[in-house]
Amino acid sequence: MTNKVITISRQFGSGGRTIGKEVAKRLGIPYYDKELVDRVAKESGFSHEFIEEIGEYASVTSSFLFNIAVSSHPMGLIDTMSVSDKLYVCQTNVIRDLANQGPCVIVGRCADYILRGRPDVLDIFIHADYEHRAARVLERYGETNQPLKRRLQEKDSKRKVYYKHYTNQNWGEAQNYHLCLNSGLIGVDKCVDIICDIAEMP
Amino acid sequence: MTNKVITISRQFGSGGRTIGKEVAKRLGIPYYDKELVDRVAKESGFSHEFIEEIGEYASVTSSFLFNIAVSSHPMGLIDTMSVSDKLYVCQTNVIRDLANQGPCVIVGRCADYILRGRPDVLDIFIHADYEHRAARVLERYGETNQPLKRRLQEKDSKRKVYYKHYTNQNWGEAQNYHLCLNSGLIGVDKCVDIICDIAEMP
């Protein structure tokens, strides 16, 4: 396999993260998720929680989060760039650096768009029908006060808005990815097989 | 394989038709394209040319085609339904009939939407980047007076409008299909392998 970078975008509850981890393990390459957040935190000065909350979910930061973020940010209010934009720029740099280090799997955070034009990138989108996602979310994260359907819709809607804002492309539109898989019908294991199979093509 | 019906939607020049034919051959099941047009022609009274021109490309029929179609249509002007709508209704009935006959491959014509909700249907979307599609169209259909880029855009745009009009869904949106493949990167043969592999899952 020549220096292959695999980006995985996913609907909430579709098992995209699990698939990404398993693909990385099977191919013996790094899987960047927590480490990516660590790097972004170190380079931006933002907290882990803030990066996880804002890093792929909102194009416009709420004034509450904005205040917390700015008050704890080393650059203070000097820079006029929005907090969300600063975070995006920092994530972009970290993602490019990680991809330059060699084969890896990167989940979410517009990595497909950030690495566009590179001939060594394989872009994947994982989705599933409501029933499969609801069952998965319930099993993994349990119940909350918010109805399940609303949680799924809200999370995906935020990812969609964030992606559109920074890429001017439509999140989940097939032509933005090399391979889109319905993990509900195909199954997580088979999705891993197919991705590894394509990644290992000469 | 349990009674599996495979629908293939595709960008113009992506090789979707070739992939559909090969999948049908490999699985030993019928491939409906010309035969579907024959059946629709027989049941609607419209000509083959008209069905091929309008059957998946336009939601609003031009007055010129409308006049030709109506003048040769056995029902004349009695019915107030538009020509495009009549054709869609007829195609819907034929597609449902064919799917009820057993496993098969059906290309285009909103078959994914028409057969939605059936547990035995596998919906595929084939696309590719501009360079691959342009090369394929040039090789298959040769040059015309219209620039290649314009031909590709126009054909896809018409399919998109037609699909949106009759399904209220977005053509090429990953979540409407079980599997979306970039045939340019993955290659036609590998696409066939992957589709057959999934179709043959228990």
Task: Describe this structure as you would to a colleague.
- Two copies of one chain form a homodimer.
- With 202 residues, chain A is α/β, with parallel strands linked by helices.
- Chain A is 54% helix and 11% strand.
- The first copy, chain A, contains ten helices and five strands.
- Chain A has a five-stranded parallel sheet with strand order 2-3-1-4-5, sandwiched between helices.
- In chain A, helix 1 (16-27) crosses helix 10 and helix 2 crosses helix 5 (83-100).
- Chain A is globular.
- Chain A starts with a strand and ends with a helix.
- In chain A, 44% of the residues are buried.
Short characterization:
The first copy, chain A, has 202 residues and is α/β, with parallel strands linked by helices. Helix content of chain A is 54%, strand content 11%. About 2% of the residues of chain A have low confidence.
Throw out a few tags for this protein.
5 strands, 202 residues, 11% strand, globular, five-stranded parallel β-sheet
Instruction: Please give the share of residues in helix of chain A.
Output: 40-55%
- The assembly state of the depicted protein chains is homodimer
Report the average pLDDT across residues of chain A: 86
Spatial separation of the terminal alpha carbons of chain A? 6 Å
Instruction: Report the total helices of chain A.
Output: 10
Layout of secondary structure:
The structure is a homodimer of 202-residue chains.
Chain A: E1 5-10, H1 16-27, E2 31-32, H2 34-44, H3 48-54, H4 63-72, H5 83-100, E3 104-107, H6 111-114, E4 121-127, H7 130-141, H8 148-167, E5 179-182, H9 183-186, H10 188-199
Parallel strand pairs in A: 1-3, 1-4, 2-3, 4-5
Helix pairs in contact in A: 1-10, 2-5
